[in-house]
Design goal:
single chain, alpha/beta, Chemotaxis Receptor Methyltransferase Cher, domain 1, Rossmann fold, three-stranded antiparallel sheet, about 40% helix
């Protein structure tokens, strides 16, 4: 039997693993995620020559080799693409068109994943404010592995979604020789972005105040209490009058009274956090 198919994630093992990811990253996993968890962790059992998910759990508890970060990476990596949820970028453009080009603006992509969202924000900023205007973007994610990809800004041509041909021509470079199947974000945009690790539940908050915060398609993985904690933490970093963008399927109703809906899945901070 192929060893990859021989492992069985028992209910007890799954319960231990989901409690661990909840403790480390605040992520809640329902019973329906059991097969997903088994699939994502199976190759680690093989790589470490372990014979069960229980053995892997015990290995994680020792965490002597940095395996915990790899574990978090495997269970928190989600699909993303350029200009996902396009209405957000249309609204962002409308907001930027009302700002003086000399105005300093700070934007936070709080769940930046492999960088497509963050670079989409940067392209929107460049199109409306100009590349040399005083705007800056912070891109954060809990996964250090995925952040390494974001920092490089290199994407396979065949896997790029949502990026128009004019945007590709203007803000992406074609790879040559062994990299001919790839596109790279132009240096002018990359230097406007700082990527760094960040745990939405536990990491110290940035000291800067932001005009706009994107935190999309990650709140769905938290329970209600952790959603409230995350929103309160992020909103405390948002300027009064600033905008918060969650995912289209994520409502902030009842989570934070000082964020008022101004459009579908777009909120504005109305007063200073107490």
């Amino acid at each position: 039997m192929n060893k990859l198919t021989a492992f069985n994630l028992t209910p007890d093992e799954f319960d231990k693993i989901r409690k661990l990811i909840h403790k480390k990253a605040g992520i809640s996993m329902s019973d329906a995620k059991r097969s997903l968890v088994a699939g994502r962790l199976r190759k680690r059992l093989v790589a470490l020559d372990l014979d069960s998910y229980e053995a892997y759990y015990q290995y994680l508890k020792k965490d002597q080799t940095g395996e915990m970060q790899r574990f978090i990476d495997l269970l928190t990596t989600n699909e993303t693409w350029f200009f996902r949820e396009e209405r957000h970028f249309e609204y962002l453009t409308e907001f930027l068109q009302q700002q003086p080009k000399a105005k300093s603006l700070n934007i936070w992509s709080a769940a930046s994943s492999s960088g497509e969202e963050t670079y989409s924000i940067a392209m929107t900023m460049a199109e409306t404010m100009g590349v040399t205007s005083p705007w800056n973007i912070l891109g954060t994610d809990i996964s250090s592995r995925i952040l390494d990809r974001a920092k490089k800004g290199i994407y396979m041509k065949s896997k790029i979604k949502g990026l128009s041909s004019p945007m590709k021509r203007k803000y992406m470079l074609n790879g040559v020789r062994e990299f001919e199947d790839y596109l790279a974000v132009v240096p002018e945009l990359r230097k406007k972005i700082k990527f760094q690790p960040f745990n939405l539940i536990t990491s110290p908050l940035p000291t800067v105040k932001f005009d706009i915060i994107f935190c999309r398609n990650v709140l769905i993985y938290f329970n209600q209490q952790h959603k409230k904690e995350v929103i309160h933490r992020l909103a405390s970093c948002l300027k009064v009058g600033g905008y918060f963008f969650p995912g289209h399927s994520e409502s902030l109703h009842g989570l934070y009274d000082e964020l008022k809906a101004v459009a579908p899945s777009i909120y504005q901070k109305t007063k200073r956090s107490s």
